[in-house]
Design brief:
- The protein is mainly alpha-helical.
- Among the domains are: about 100 residues, Alpha-Beta Plaits (2-Layer Sandwich), CATH 3.30.70; about 80 residues, Alpha-Beta Plaits, CATH 3.30.70.20.
- A hairpin with a 6-residue loop joins strand 4 and strand 5.
- The longest helix has about 35 residues.
Length: about 270
């Protein structure tokens, strides 16, 4: 037979512990027939104050700005050295010099055939598109578009981009192996004919511009200033249509442009 402890505090502690454990057990055990208690929803952590985000972004920008400026200052001299040094390749392959295909948005408005070209239709039937004239041209003004978007894939000159200089060698005509370019005298070359838009010309606005005359390789046999009207006049019998005048014209759009050759009766009257 067990006897109670002589120490009253032990009896109190034992009684209290039993009561506490019983209370915890009763509290954790659900009452029969009742659903279990719902858990409280988790509260997401508060978002970062937008003002703090802006503060951090500004700090980061302030830190990186000097670095970006230093990199740009170091790269500028390198860019200046190499800018314009990497022109598009002039050849599509080793055997046929051709210009890479141009996008149609880059297509020049006016294209002309090289010096000594046979009439349209006959030229295309004889030309083999070998690229010999392209290779021979000393100023590389003759091009062939490999995609045939420009000039139908045959040799052409775009005077607004690169005019013919009417070289003394007559190199392209001598290099043609098929006869599509016939060798003619320098003064007999008829690539096209220069036409003047007088309302655009600076002389029409009182300026004594003579740049087109100075650029012409033929000189007064092809282009002059009229002593009566002061206008620039092109002589159809002497103009080779090289495009040097168009290249030299300072107006935009240019006041003088080279157009494909036409019959004398179709020429405009000045």
């Amino acid at each position: 037979m067990m006897q109670d402890s002589d120490n009253p505090s032990d009896n109190i502690a034992r009684t209290t512990g039993e009561s506490d454990s019983s209370a915890v057990s009763n509290a954790s055990a659900p009452t029969p027939g009742q659903p279990p208690p719902k858990e409280s929803p988790r509260v997401p952590p508060p978002e970062l104050d937008p003002r703090r985000r802006g503060f951090f972004a500004k700090c980061l920008s302030d830190i990186l700005a000097p670095v970006a400026g230093l990199i740009e200052s170091r790269m500028d001299p390198v860019t200046d050295i190499f800018e314009g040094q990497f022109a598009p390749p002039s050849y599509d392959d080793d055997s046929s010099p051709m210009m890479p295909g141009l996008h149609r948005s880059m297509e020049p408005q006016t294209i002309l055939r090289p010096p000594g070209a046979k009439p349209p239709g006959e030229f295309e039937s004889v030309c083999s598109r070998c690229g010999a004239c392209v290779e021979a041209c000393p100023v590389k003004c003759i091009q062939i578009d490999a995609s045939a978007c420009v000039g139908d894939g045959y040799p052409y000159i775009a005077p607004a981009i690169a005019p013919c200089v009417v070289c003394d060698e007559l190199a392209c005509m001598k290099a043609c192996p098929t006869g599509a370019l016939t060798l003619v005298d320098k003064l007999s070359i008829r690539i096209g004919l220069a036409e003047v838009k007088h309302e655009t010309c600076l002389r029409h606005h009182g300026e004594d511009c003579r740049l087109c005359l100075e650029a012409c390789p033929i000189g007064e046999n092809a282009i002059i200033v009229s002593t009566n009207s002061g206008r620039v006049l092109v002589k159809p019998g002497g103009c080779t249509g090289c495009g040097m005048c168009e290249q030299a014209c300072p107006t935009h759009p240019t006041a003088i442009t080279v157009q494909p050759p036409r019959r004398m009766e179709e020429l405009p009257e000045d």
